[in-house]
Amino acid sequence: MLEIRNLNVEFSGKLAVRDTSFAVQPGESFGLVGESGSGKSTILRTVMGLNATWNGSISVDGQDVRKIPRKQLAKMVQMVFQDPYSSLHPRYVIGQQIAEPMKINGIANPERRTAELLELIGLGAKFQFRFPHELSGGQRQRVAIARALALSPKLLLLDEPTSALDVSIQAEILNLLNRLRKELGLTFVIVSHDLAVISYMCERLMVMRNAQPVETLTREQLRSGAIAEDYTKALIAAA
Amino acid sequence: MSVTPDLVVDPKRAVRAARWAEFKVFTRRFMRNPLGVVGLVIVVLLLFCAAFAPLLATHDPYLPSLTDRLAAPSATYWLGADELGRDIYSRILYGSQLTLLIVGLVIVTSAPIGLIIGAVSGTVGGWVDVVFMRITDVFLAIPKLLLALAFVAALGPGITNAALAITLTAWPPYARLARAEALIVRNSDYVNAVRLAGASEFRIIVFHVIPMCLSSVIVRMTFDMAGIILTAAGLGFIGLGAQPPLPEWGAMISTGRKFIFDQWWVATVPGIAIFTVSLGFNLLGDALRDLLDPHLRQRK
Amino acid sequence: MSDLVQIENLHVAFRNDDGGYNDAVRGVSLQLGREKLGIVGESGSGKSLTGRALLGVLPPYARISVDRMQFDGIDLKSASPKLRRSLRGGRMGMILQDPKFSLNPVMTVGKQIVEAIRIGDRRISGGDAKKKALGILEAVHIREPERVFGLYPHELSGGMGQRVMIGMMVVREPDLLIADEPTSALDVTVRTQVLSILDELVTRRGMGLIFISHDLNLVSKFCDRVIVMYAGRIVESIEASRLHEATHPYTRGLLSCLPQIDGSLEPLPVLNREASWAGAA
């Protein structure tokens, strides 16, 4: 579904991602764990084309992302941002924001699908006429998820989807994501600094530090303590 | 999946209702600022005077009456008469039309020009940004009044030319302002989100960046109006704006200057008019800034 | 032992758009000895406002009412702004979530610490103040104090900035330290270090500490006593060691909705908020 080989991303002379490779199978949920500055979010943004300068190869669904037209890529993969307080446009009502991707891509009857999406993520169609500032953080993040699903992508990149939320809301969002993955047959790549969240959400994970991968583990390895690297052990101990 | 039909049928109306509710909250917060309300009242009064000048006026503003030259304020001439015996009260009323005309002309030209240049510049970046901003810098470097003077001198005096001349010097601050907002907005996640959906740069600028620049542009606009009124009056005063016999306030002060010690009302009344209207726009601008400026909005 | 801090029936309210007032803190009472007290709650529960009200740093448009607020026998309710300011500079300190906002960006770290020392002791000589500042940097486990002394805040990492901030606060040897989410912006590995420094300072100097956080597990590991706040009220107050015996459904809900590394993969239990929680305390 997603394959990344020898990815290097440079920001003003400094490598933000160094020689990183991994592959995500269809239907899988893959986690990227690391502390701030480890480059995990940069990988997601690079896949989405938000970073212009990188080298290596990224392919989605077997196709090189450099060769996929932007609108087509938009229908294959979407991203949910970390901070729901800054990822919704403050001047538009929720319904307009969810419909926007469909309008851009000329999908018929966006209003009807917006209402359906709002039901799907558990808010209800009546929310489409609210402004973001009338919603709580958890509700906003649901809206951001609905917007990401508007074009029915099969691959969803989630950048710290719950780290700006309260723990009780985090549980709701994680449950929602798991349900959506099952119902819609999605593939997830989840970035988080929280090993517990990754262990709960992902079948496989990659630990990153200082812009490069430390090791790749399965959930079973993580849980049984079959860990090779000291850094990973330190992360678990501190969690 | 059950979707209540009436919510899908007319989304436009529902969106309008949501915006209306927002506006009502905004009005209520505005009403809590007494000085802002004073400003608003002055501005509304100005609009009212301009709209109903023919009904409110007691005399023909252009008709001289040599027997009443420089008459003091009285029951016939509420605010006195000028050196040709024309009623100052009526001239002030008609003058408000000219003032609004100039302000209107300048605002509808300079604000959109500045907004578009700034938003494009900030969003697109790169060489477009460099070119646009250097042009802006050039215009900012020329003293305002001087450029307006040169322009009017070249094209000849008159209201439209005065307005054009002021526009020429008024748009660069809007461009700067809009660019600064656009620079923040273009990297925000909500713009990234529509970018990821495949939106074109054009769509991003028009539908997502410009709405975010609007509030600071509107605030700036209200503040600018006072400045525009003063510049227009200044041009009128030195004879490069509205031409006689038009009852432009600056030109009225200019003619009243000669009699200021003996017939003070000829120059003072239009002066008070300019002062009041400028103050009104400034008070209104201040109140709007308190409500709209994102940097001041944190207080809850 | 007399209580260091006593608060009775604290209310904090903010104006809403309708011109009325919304209560953000509703009748909070608490006592603090020379111990580590954790205040836990979700955003909007009023936990930070409680800390700020005690320090006297709420914005001027907040409406505060309290029956009794005492700090070491001093009545804060009737204290003059001047007295409260001097208390803040000396006997009470606060550590905020992000050190970037609480350090002066155009002054080196060293200068700021020296200044803090001299505010507390005006007669100290420049050389002694510097020596003391370096000592403090060492006490908060900064490896090269001489080098860090000359750095500007933006040159520090998050963890280092937070340690400097803690250093600046404890240099005045306050009796009470209020830490508002001091580790939330930090990576997990750094967090442990910062917490152990705080613990060491509090224990050694016998300070009272109010630790405000959203992280129930962290607080229960670190503090002696935990207060759980919900919608501006205290719903439960419990010894940290007996947190697992908590009875209030909100506290229990908070504990169970966290995923664990080796936890079940079943859907996480979700809090069903009941209106009664926001009612009587």
Automatic annotation (TrEMBL), chain A:
Summary of subunit composition and partner proteins: The complex is composed of two ATP-binding proteins (GsiA), two transmembrane proteins (GsiC and GsiD) and a solute-binding protein (GsiB).
SUPFAM superfamilies: P-loop containing nucleoside triphosphate hydrolases
PROSITE patterns listed in its UniProt record: ABC_TRANSPORTER_1 (PS00211), ABC_TRANSPORTER_2 (PS50893)
Keywords linked to the UniProt accession: ATP-binding, Cell inner membrane, Cell membrane, Membrane, Nucleotide-binding, Translocase, Transport
Membrane topology: Peripheral membrane protein
Described function: Part of the ABC transporter complex GsiABCD involved in glutathione import. Responsible for energy coupling to the transport system.
Residue stretches making up the ABC transporter domain: 2-235
Primary location: membrane
EC number of this enzyme: 7.4.2.10
Name of protein: Glutathione import ATP-binding protein GsiA
Reactions that this protein is recorded to catalyse: glutathione(out) + ATP + H2O = glutathione(in) + ADP + phosphate + H(+)
InterPro entries reported in the protein's UniProt record: AAA+_ATPase, ABC_transp_ATP-bind, ABC_transporter-like_ATP-bd, ABC_transporter-like_CS, P-loop_NTPase
Compartments it resides in: Cell inner membrane; Membrane
GO terms assigned for molecular function: ATP binding; ATP hydrolysis activity
Pfam families: ABC_tran
Keyword Cell membrane: yes
Similarity-based family: Belongs to the ABC transporter superfamily. Glutathione importer (TC 3.A.1.5.11) family.
Automatic annotation (TrEMBL), chain B:
Transmembrane spans: 35-57, 100-133, 145-171, 202-219, 226-244, 264-284
GO cellular component: plasma membrane
Topology class, membrane: Multi-pass membrane protein
GO biological process: protein transport
InterPro entries tied to this protein: BP-dependent_transpt_permease, MetI-like, MetI-like_sf, OppC_N
Keywords: Cell membrane, Membrane, Peptide transport, Protein transport, Transmembrane, Transmembrane helix, Transport
Alphabetized GO MF terms: dipeptide transmembrane transporter activity
Domain of life per record: Bacteria
A Pfam cross-reference name: BPD_transp_1
Protein's cellular compartments: Cell membrane
Domain ABC transmembrane type-1, first and last residues per copy: 96-285
Recorded family membership: Belongs to the binding-protein-dependent transport system permease family.
Name of this protein: D-ala-D-ala transporter subunit
From TrEMBL, chain C:
Gene3D superfamilies given in the database record: P-loop containing nucleotide triphosphate hydrolases
GO molecular-function terms, A-Z: ATP binding; ATP hydrolysis activity
Coiled-coil segments on the chain, per record: none
One of the Pfam families matching this protein, by short name: ABC_tran
GO cellular component, one term: plasma membrane
Keyword Ribonucleoprotein: no
Domain ABC transporter, first and last residues per copy: 5-256
Family according to the record: Belongs to the ABC transporter superfamily.
PANTHER family attached to this UniProt entry: DIPEPTIDE TRANSPORT ATP-BINDING PROTEIN DPPD (PTHR43297:SF2), OLIGOPEPTIDE TRANSPORT ATP-BINDING PROTEIN APPD (PTHR43297)
Protein name (record): Peptide ABC transporter ATP-binding protein
Species this protein is from: Devosia insulae DS-56
